Amino acid sequence: MFKQYVNNEQFNLQINRFINDYYQEDNRADADLEIMIPKLNDTNSWYKTWLDFAKKREDSKDYDLASVYYQAAEFYLASTDPNKEKMYQKYRETFYKGFTDFDYESYKIPYEDSNLPAVKLLTPGATKTLLVFGGYDSYMEEMLKMMKFIKGIDYNMIVFDGPGQGTALKNGLTFIHNWEKPVSTIIDYFKLERVSLIGASWGGYLAMRAAAFEKRIDKVVAFNIFYSGLDALKMGMPEETYLSIMQLVDNNEVEKVNSLLGKMMSDNIDLNWKIEKGMENTGDSTPFDLIKSFEKHTMNGIGPFINQDVLLLAGQDDQYVPISRLAQIQQELTNAASIITKVFTKETGGEQHCQAGHRELAFNEMKKFL
Fold this sequence. Notes:
By secondary structure, the protein is α/β, with parallel strands linked by helices. The protein has helices spanning 9-23, 27-36, 43-59, 63-75, 82-98, 140-146, 166-170, 180-189, 203-213, 229-234, 239-250, 254-266, 269-282, 287-294, 325-332, 359-369, and strands at residues 103-111, 114-122, 128-133, 155-160, 195-200, 217-223, 309-315, 338-344. The protein has an eight-stranded mixed beta sheet, with helices on both faces. Strand 3 (128-133), helix 6 (140-146) and strand 4 (155-160) form a beta-alpha-beta unit. Helix 3 (43-59) runs antiparallel to helix 4. It is globular and about 50 Å long.
């Protein structure tokens, strides 16, 4: 169940994302949260509180929980903050100490002049392959953890960080819209003939984009639907404000866009995070440049190229993707082999972005689909 912990909408989403799905019946986390929640007042107290409890859990060898806390501690840190890299490394270190759900193999897959990190989760006797990746801010370790929800299906699972994600970003690979490139690289590397895809969050768009142009993909899961990168910027912003910003962008008013968004970021934690994280991912140095990058991330025009079996998952109260995009995506998938749609509501649970708080509901649908 999605829980309302604090008054900040995004804080609530992230707490549920990091904790609720895995530890809602875990007395360790419940006890920690009771002390932590009253301290989460701003991004500074967020960092200090999660870090404090991460250290405690690591000291007590609760590595699974420590990893979650380190990831949360890292979340709002600026890319220029030296603690961000430290938190990321502690997150990964404790994650692998505590990860026992699967036997696995680790890879560094050559890509351009760098490499893509990947982990292959082994399912005895599996005859098929599933590629899994996140989106804007998730790391492959977060996706690895979720695979327990579909353990036992007839798939080996290859989970990877693509350009602009996790260790691939650390390796110098910035975020791109044409996701068929890394997907094709993975398929070639493992010499695969057919694969299915799961893309989470922004990965819902990335998976659809890959399926449009890589025909060795047979099934594609948009775990959550994601039509346009600009939707994430627009959600939570007054319509007229968004329209005025985009008019300035269209008129190439660079300084006005940067000034306006800079002022808005100064007193809006959510917007500040979206733009700062976006510039970290893409390598862009200004909000204007970031918007131009976001404009490339769109399903507009690619729907007819998708001819695979498609599963569309959507949350009624998603704070990053308007539910109205679902009907649009369905209409634009004119050549899909099949389309299965599942909308999650408050009544069913899973109404939030990527079904935070009820992740197992989404994975139940994926198991049936795959």
